[in-house]
Design brief:
Blueprint lengths: L1 E6 L3 E7 L5 E8 L6 H15 L5 E6 L10 E2 L2 H9 L8 H14 L5 E5 L9 H4 L5 H7 L8 H15 L7 E7 L3 E7 L2 E5 L20 H15 L8 H10 L2 H6 L4 H9 L3 H25 L4 E5 H4 L3 H8 L9 E4 L4 H15 L1
Parallel strand pairs: 1-4, 4-6, 7-10, 10-11
Antiparallel strand pairs: 1-2, 2-3, 5-6, 7-8, 8-9
Helix pairs in contact: 1-3, 6-14, 10-11, 11-13
Length: 355
């Protein structure tokens, strides 16, 4: 059997597949208290070991592997060390990805473990979409460029969409919207991603549930300067870690209306909450802007895809986004449930087979 582990900041998701990639068993649990994450994770993996004692390998979804790690790879000490360095680039994801790897290595100590990266699907982005307008010396020194994220989800649904319409993947122009706790949009042409809303980190792009998305960089400088000045009056400045928490955990829809669950936001908006209504409007508007931009990039769009817990799960949100978008008149709109774990299992199985 093949175990695929997908550790998020507030959830642990796993699937067991046969070698022929048939689903055997799966589970997803929510972990609201970070202090209990390790306990829940160990418990889940021990339960899996009881039914999966003949594992071929364990696969892990990893959000950010930096410049060096984009392709599926067997995990060793050097790889794990590189992943540790990337925690700062994806603070909501990589710490839990790494924790998942370390815990699985202890429980399945004799089983090979592999990592598949969210950034792989975007490794061939054209320079005009990839490069930030920063001094070259800084870009090269710190490896600053657009990495793109949610790659396994986007890749799975666009390939699925091609099968649904029965046309070659390499001949379709598509826009894929992954809308969940994290949200991103990508443009696909001739079988490859040509642009992505998320960039150097998973913080850029759309307004998300707790992440700010696109911000004027001057706001960060302004906040830093203001807090530095307030320090003279006996107040501590907002240090980088605190800013990190604000941008990743306290902003986005939560920052506007105080709620970080889309079901709660929709319910509150229906009941007349102005803040909830505003949060929805901002969220939808940010998605519409990217759809319009990528339509311009592609020239035309054959298929618009919605996936993720919100994109696939909420017909209301899809209707809000597509309402009055006349550019989509000739575009087929699909809602497809993503299956990142299946694609990860397939990728790793292919790597093992080649070796």
């Amino acid at each position: 059997m093949i175990l695929i582990l997908n550790c998020g900041s507030q959830s642990i998701k796993w699937k067991l597949f046969s070698n022929k990639l048939n689903l055997i068993k799966e589970n997803k649990i929510s972990v609201k208290d970070p202090k209990k994450y390790r306990i829940f994770l160990s418990s889940e993996l021990k339960r899996i070991k009881e039914v999966g004692d003949n594992l071929l390998f364990v696969g892990h979804r990893v959000v950010h592997g930096g410049e060096k790690l984009r392709e599926p790879v067997k995990i060793n000490k050097r790889i794990l060390s590189e992943l540790e360095k990337c925690k700062v680039l994806a603070p909501l994801h990589n710490p839990f990805n790494v924790l998942g790897i370390k815990t699985a290595q202890k429980i399945f100590s004799k089983i090979d473990q592999f990592a598949v990266f969210d950034t792989e699907f975007f490794k061939d982005l054209p320079d005009k979409a990839k490069i930030y307008a920063l001094p070259e010396r800084l870009r090269k020194k710190y490896k600053i460029f657009r990495y793109g994220f949610h790659g396994t989800s986007h890749e799975y649904v666009v390939r699925k969409a091609a099968k649904i319409v029965k046309k070659p993947f390499s001949k379709l122009k598509m826009i894929s919207c992954h809308l969940g706790g994290g949200a991103s949009v990508c443009a696909i042409e001739k079988g490859k991603a040509v642009d992505a809303s998320m960039g150097f980190t998973p913080l850029e792009g759309l307004v998300m549930m707790t992440r700010s998305g696109n911000l004027d960089p001057g706001i960060i400088l302004f906040l830093s300067q203001k807090t530095q000045r307030r320090k003279k009056a006996g107040q501590l400045p907002i240090e980088s870690q605190k800013l990190n928490e604000i941008l990743n955990q306290e902003s986005g829809i939560k920052g506007i209306c105080g709620m970080a669950d889309m079901k709660e936001v929709l319910k509150a908006a229906k009941q007349g909450s102005k803040k909830a209504k505003l949060a929805l409007d901002v969220f939808v508007y940010s998605i519409q802007k990217y759809i319009g931009a990528y339509f311009a990039v592609l020239g035309e769009v054959d298929i618009l895809i919605f996936t993720g817990a919100i994109g696939y799960g909420s017909a209301k949100i899809r209707k809000m986004i597509c309402r009055n978008l006349k550019i989509l008149t000739k575009t087929k709109i699909l809602a497809i449930e993503t299956n990142e774990e299946l694609l990860i299992a397939e990728k790793i199985r292919n790597v093992v087979a080649r070796k």
